[in-house]
User: Which sequence fits this backbone?
């Protein structure tokens, strides 16, 4: 099913190559970290779906507010997600969890599960590179937000320059 959701999300992005590349990278990291962390099948699938659609509100936020700030994305996501996901007939618990994850993917407190933690980490793995964040910013985020062994390992590998 993830392939169909990816295809629909690509259509949803209406040719915005940056948005497409971003969600595909977040999906790849979320999938990888989830597998390495040994998530059960349902949690893994939920995580992967949430990673694909995590920035669904970005186009609307850029148009409506002139910004895709995290708090705006979280505020606008649910109204877009529910109709987007309807055709996939997700189990109601899975749909609710995907909505919760997407509506919290920039909230770093009250993390309520491995899927939530991994989505935060996967999004940051991509955002750190796209935003050219300083080594100090990356270290601070790692020390304060990252919790998974494999997400931390990838972050260190990607952003720690050998001396």
Assistant:
């Amino acid at each position: 099913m993830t392939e169909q959701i990816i295809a629909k999300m690509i259509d949803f992005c209406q040719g915005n190559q940056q948005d497409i590349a971003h969600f595909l990278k977040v999906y790849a990291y979320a999938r990888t970290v989830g597998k390495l962390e040994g998530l059960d099948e349902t949690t893994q699938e939920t995580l992967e779906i949430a990673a694909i659609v995590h920035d669904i509100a970005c186009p609307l936020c850029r148009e409506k507010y002139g910004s895709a700030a995290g708090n705006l994305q979280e505020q606008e996501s649910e109204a877009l997600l529910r109709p987007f996901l309807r055709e996939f007939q997700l189990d109601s618990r899975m749909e609710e969890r995907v909505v919760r994850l997407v509506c919290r993917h920039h909230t770093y407190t009250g993390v309520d599960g491995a899927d939530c933690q991994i989505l935060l980490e996967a999004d940051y793995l991509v955002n750190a590179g796209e935003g050219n964040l300083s080594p100090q910013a990356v270290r601070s985020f790692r020390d304060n937000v990252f919790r998974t062994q494999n997400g931390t390992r990838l972050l260190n590998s990607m952003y720690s320059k050998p001396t």
